[in-house]
TrEMBL record:
<dbReference type="Pfam" id="PF13692">
    <property type="entry name" value="Glyco_trans_1_4"/>
</dbReference>
<feature type="transmembrane region" description="Helical">
    <location>
        <begin position="93"/>
        <end position="112"/>
    </location>
</feature>
<keyword id="KW-0328">Glycosyltransferase</keyword>
<protein>
    <submittedName>
        <fullName>Glycosyltransferase</fullName>
        <ecNumber>2.4.-.-</ecNumber>
    </submittedName>
</protein>
<keyword id="KW-1133">Transmembrane helix</keyword>
<feature type="transmembrane region" description="Helical">
    <location>
        <begin position="132"/>
        <end position="152"/>
    </location>
</feature>
<keyword id="KW-0812">Transmembrane</keyword>
<keyword id="KW-0808">Transferase</keyword>
<dbReference type="GO" id="GO:0016757">
    <property type="term" value="F:glycosyltransferase activity"/>
</dbReference>
<keyword id="KW-0472">Membrane</keyword>
Length: 364
């Protein structure tokens, strides 16, 4: 079976759901084609930049031309390349990660009676900043949900919306445990707090400063539109270190060896309520306790993480862990048992392959 994945993240960029799915399908014997979005050479979108060369394995990556900035040229190049790929490769199944770009390609796929899956991993209406693009996404998302052969959502609020489709599945994010077989230090003392991810508009920068003021060493791995703002706000603080981008292996090794607490400092809004963050499962796989804001999706992991809504609650939770380091061992032990349900190498793999089998009508 030939599968075309229309990703919103470049292959040689940050690790994403589309990368994990490509790996799973290719290892299961599917012929996988991964359509790279155009590289954006300016701006602060790390997911659209070439950051580190990643092995292709059995995945065929179709690269796109680069553009200077996000705009009409980006959309046009992506849609044209996607349409050409469908006509040339004749895939049996097409998996969409976005609606803009993607709408023209989706329309063609339905006209050609291709099997289509809408991978609903972000609320694109909230993620986009352009007013016209937001309006378009508000119109396109219901069309994708209604006309796709099936929808797979990574967050509960997205799944609730997608249930108009008869083949709607909720499958949260996760990690492949085999990527985390290196040394995983269990913290005995608590002094180093780490963040890993994109510093997008959804990040609460004040949480980093709150922890630094409470005496913790704060380390931030990642880049994004808020990087410069954070850099300017913390330039005179010795206990806040900004790494910028690190490739995934280096970042995970750094966290494994030096991190005592992981933090997910999301603003609480419609966008973050619909995010199932990979970083949560990466921290848990590396034996780290996690502090996270109380978004709807993260609230469902309350038994795994310590949630907070205010900076006072964040400080209280962090100081509680610092005063009770033995508790961390108990948290890690409990989380190890829970983590197996979020492993792309076993449990999640079975769930997503089962969903694809039902949607595509193919035996796996």
């Amino acid at each position: 079976m030939k599968v075309l994945i229309l990703s919103g993240v470049k292959w040689d960029s940050i690790w994403s759901h589309a990368h994990e799915l490509s790996r799973i399908l290719s290892e299961e014997g599917y012929s996988v084609i991964f359509l790279d979005p155009p590289e954006v050479t300016t701006g602060t979108q790390p997911h659209l930049k070439i950051l580190s060369k990643r092995p292709r394995g059995n995945v065929k990556v179709i690269e796109n031309k680069s553009v200077k900035k996000l705009g009409p040229a980006f959309l046009l190049i992506y849609e044209v390349t996607a349409i050409k790929t469908i006509l040339k490769e004749n895939p049996d199944l097409i998996i969409f990660y976005g609606v803009l770009p993607g709408f023209a390609t989706f329309s063609l796929a339905k006209l050609l009676r291709k099997k289509v899956i809408f991978m609903y991993v972000d609320d694109h209406r909230e993620l986009l900043t352009n007013k016209i693009a937001k309006i378009f996404a508000s119109i396109a998302i219901p069309i994708f949900i209604g006309w796709a052969n099936g929808v797979i959502s990574t967050a509960k609020v997205l799944h609730e919306e997608s249930m108009r489709n008869k083949r709607a599945f909720y499958i949260p994010n996760g990690i492949n445990i085999r990527d985390f077989l290196h040394t995983k230090r269990i913290p005995r003392t608590v002094k180093n707090v780490y963040f890993i991810g994109t510093l997008g508009k959804w990040i609460r920068l004040e949480d980093f400063i709150t922890l630094a003021d409470a005496g913790f060493n704060v380390f931030v791995i990642g880049h994004g539109e808020k990087f410069e703002e954070l850099k300017n706000a913390t330039k005179n603080r010795r206990n806040i270190t900004l790494y910028g981008y690190l490739d995934r292996k280096a970042a995970l090794n750094e966290i494994s060896e030096k991190c005592d607490i992981g933090i997910i400092p999301f603003l609480k809004n419609k966008l973050t309520d619909a995010i199932s963050p990979i970083k949560l499962f990466e921290f848990v796989a590396l034996n780290k306790p996690v502090l996270a804001t109380n978004t709807i999706e993260l609230e469902s992991f309350k038994g795994i993480i310590l949630v907070y809504s205010t900076t006072d609650e964040l400080k209280k939770n962090a100081l509680f862990l610092k005063a009770n380091p033995k508790l961390i061992k108990e948290i890690v032990k409990k989380n190890r048992k829970i983590l197996k349900h979020y492993d792309w190498g076993s449990h999640l793999k079975k769930r997503i392959l089962g969903a694809i089998r039902i949607i595509a009508g193919e035996e796996i």
